[in-house]
Amino acid sequence: MGSDNAVIHCFAGCDPRDVVAALGMSLGDLFAANVPHSRSSGSGYPTQTSDLRQPTPNDRGRYQRGDVTATYDYVWPDSEPCARVLKYREVEAEGGAAVKKTFRQQRWDAEGREYVWGLAGLEVPLYHADEVARAVREEQLIVICEGEKDADAAATVWGVVATSNPMGAGSWRSHHTDALKGAFVVVIADDDDAGRRHAAYVVQALEGVAAEVELMLPTRGSDVADHIEAGGTWEELRPLAVNADVNDGCSEIRQTFPALDWRELWAEPVAQEWILEPLLPARRLVSIYSEPKLGKSLLILEVAVHLSRGDTSLGFAVKRPYRVLYIDYENDPRADIRSRLQAMGYGGK
Question: Is the per-residue pLDDT at 60 higher than 50?
């Protein structure tokens, strides 16, 4: 990366524009002068979609962006324009067959009274942020979907205040959580692993912030729009338990390293447990240091034997026999360890 340019390469073969789009940027942001990241001052409203400057074809030449199939406008909580997301149909360069959808973002330049490409680090609020702010004040239900299309479908058909965070799964930010303080929220997950993980993350982020938060799953199709298009109703949504139903690949880690609740930590005094009091506490790491050849290994071997037998060790009582794993990288088991055990009075029985 130089002083005024940058190079992006994805080893998985992603288009560079898709990489920067996932960061809320465009390729132009890598070369443009610095732009303030906060909301622009002044007023003004969007130009028409027909005024858009169309992006150039994919540099690799295999695909190119086709027509804009949808435009999703983002506003600030006071309804002033903020940004918008453009949904494109990506087509083959030869033949023009539709291949997939892709998205690009623009921010509103109030001084120039137009949208410009890239977000330049702008903290884009929730979709329909003005309606969300009103719903929080009036204690109305707010439905969180994974995408703008789903939010619009839910709002249109079910008559609820529906929203989503920009740029899809994995893009929930702390300012989105802050906007829902005290809100009554239902999160509807997309029915795939990524969608469930994202929805579970949103629910966990809102716990203790929102007044109430529930997690639901569509029963028809893979998302809210599919569910509604198939005739699914609000009542047919299925409750989803975050811990039981969401496979985020971390269940084994959570079991091995359980979360520590701060309140439970101080709820009641906890007495220290000992294996050999006052030398060896339970569930602690103990290290012994000394100059070389002063008997550290011999001492540890003696303690290990006493613990395995439940004997008194070094004058301190051992409550019961323990299973002991003794690892010695220095001494030979037969020539050294055996002779040391015999010197302590232990034989083969």
Answer: no
- Judged on CB neighbours under 10 Å (0-12, 13-18, 19+), 185 is buried
Q: How many CB atoms lie within 10 A of CB 216?
A: 18
Q: Which CATH architecture has domain 130-254?
A: 3-Layer(aba) Sandwich (3.40)
Number of helical H runs and strand E runs in the chain: 11, 11
Phi, psi of 184 (to 5 degrees): -105, 115
pLDDT for res 151: 95
String of DSSP letters for 240-294: --HHHH---S-HHHHHHS----HHHHTTS--PPPEEETTTEETT-------STTS
Query: Are β-strands 184-188 and 98-109 bridged in parallel, bridged antiparallel, or unpaired?
Result: unpaired
DSSP 84: E
CATH 3.40.1360.10: which residues of the chain?
Answer: 130-254
Tokens of 3: 């002083």
Taking only the tens place, the pLDDT of each residue in 79-134 is: 999 999 998 877 665 565 555 778 889 999 988 889 998 888 889 999 999 999 99
Burial of 46 (0-12, 13-18, 19+ CB in 10 A): middle
Integer CA distances (angstroms), 130 to 26, 49, 79, 80, 232, in order: 26, 21, 5, 9, 28
Confidence grade of residue 52 (pLDDT, cut at 50, 70, 90): very low
- pLDDT at residue 312 in the model: 87
Q: Which of 232 and 47 is assigned the larger pLDDT? A: 232
d(CA 296, CA 180): 59
Tokens of 26: 């465009």
Considering the entire predicted model, what is its pTM? 0.55
Instruction: Name residue 214's beta-bridge partners.
Output: 186
Query: What tens digit of pLDDT does each residue of 200-222 get?
Result: 999 999 999 999 999 999 999 99
For residues 107 and 75, the answer to whether their CB atoms sit within 8 Å is no
Could you write out the DSSP letters of every residue in 99-146? EEEEEEEEEEETTTTEEEEB-TT-----TTHHHHHHHHHTT-EEEE-S
